[in-house]
């Protein structure tokens, strides 16, 4: 098993164990690949959920640019809901897991097919 496969398995474990979500493994793999090299960087792999700049970056770069969603308060509400589902006290919130939850929330799975 390669490094990416190991990371995908780790993300699936977090979705199942910490978020109570049974992941669609094909979608999780595609969302993970979409994160690019960030998954291999220990700092970039983790979402700094308490930093406004990080939340703004997810909103701008992922939700608006990548998923094509219009600007609005529902974007930050969705990010907040994903963080809440992961657990606010969870220190390591993986970017691919947060992105997976957002893709499912906004029903944008078709972008990854």
The general outline is globular
Low-confidence spans: pLDDT under 50, at least 5 residues?
Answer: none
User: What's the mean pLDDT score?
Assistant: 96
Please provide the ordered H/E string of secondary-structure elements: HHHHH
Label the structural class.
mainly alpha
Q: Share of helix among residues?
A: 55-70%
What gap, in angstroms, lies between the N and C termini? 23 Å
> How big a fraction of the residues is strand?
under 5%
- Rounded radius of gyration (Å): 13 Å
Number of continuous helical runs: 5
Largest sheet: none
The total count of strands amounts to 0
What does this structure look like?
The protein is an all-alpha fold. It has helices at 3-17, 25-34, 52-66, 73-86, 95-105. The longest helix has 15 residues, at 3-17. 27% of the residues are buried.
Note the main attributes of this structure.
5 helices, 58% helix
Q: What is this structure's SSE topology?
A:
Elements: H1 3-17, H2 25-34, H3 52-66, H4 73-86, H5 95-105
Helix pairs in contact: 1-2, 2-5, 4-5
Concise synopsis of the structure shown:
The chain has 113 residues and is mainly alpha-helical. The chain has helices at 3-17, 25-34, 52-66, 73-86, 95-105.
């Amino acid at each position: 098993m390669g490094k990416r496969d190991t990371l995908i398995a780790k993300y699936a474990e977090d979705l199942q164990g910490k978020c109570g979500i049974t992941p669609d493994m094909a979608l999780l793999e595609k969302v993970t690949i979409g994160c690019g090299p960030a998954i291999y960087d220990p700092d970039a792999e983790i979402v700094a959920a308490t930093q406004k700049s990080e939340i703004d970056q997810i909103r701008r770069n992922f939700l608006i640019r990548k998923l094509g969603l219009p600007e609005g308060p529902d974007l930050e509400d969705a990010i907040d809901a994903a963080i809440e589902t992961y657990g606010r006290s969870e220190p390591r919130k993986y970017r691919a897991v947060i992105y997976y939850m957002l893709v499912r929330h906004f029903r944008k799975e078709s972008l990854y097919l």
